[in-house]
Design a protein that fits this description.
The structure is a single chain. The chain is built from two helices and five strands, in the order αβββαββ. It is α+β, with helices and mostly antiparallel strands and about 110 residues long. The longest helix has 15 residues. It is globular. The protein starts with a helix and ends in a 9-residue tail after the last strand. The structure holds adenosine monophosphate and zinc ion (ZN). Zinc ion (ZN) binds next to α1.
């Protein structure tokens, strides 16, 4: 399967890794939309949140623990930060491997565009 984030997870393509555990990787987005813009992925390929239930038990816990840990390490909690998963082309998903954007260190509006 030709999947960019699988290649990043397997280190076939370089990325700026921020944290890594057995089943999860957090790396810097190559085209940041905020002063802090990271992507958190399960290393195992699933297309989107619609398939997240196919991940082995515990992987989603590991993923959200990694997101919280990185938010803490980067001091995002005090001012607030945003976690987003675009699902489907209509919502702007461009890479079909489940990923959560972690955005911080700027002001965010609501509702999102
Ligand atoms: P989405 O559009 O929600 O599917 O998010 C995909 C994200 O992947 C975008 O924010 C891109 O900037 C980011 N991206 C694409 N290629 C790379 C790469 N090689 N390394 C890091 N981030 C990437
Ligand atoms: Zn993949």
């Amino acid at each position: 399967m030709d999947c960019l984030f699988c290649k990043i997870a397997h280190k076939d393509i370089d990325s700026s890794i921020v944290s890594e555990t057995e089943n999860v990787m957090v790396f810097k987005d190559i085209d940041p939309k905020a002063p802090v813009h990271l992507l958190a992925i399960p290393k195992q390929h699933v297309e989107s949140i619609m398939e997240a239930g196919k991940l082995p038990g515990g992987v989603l816990d590991e993923l959200f623990e990694a997101i919280a840990a990185v938010a803490k390490d980067m001091d995002l909690e005090r001012d607030g930060f945003r976690v987003v998963t675009n699902t489907g082309k209509g919502a702007g998903q461009s890479v079909d491997h489940l990923h959560f954007h972690i955005l911080g260190k700027r002001t965010f509006s609501w509702p999102p565009g």
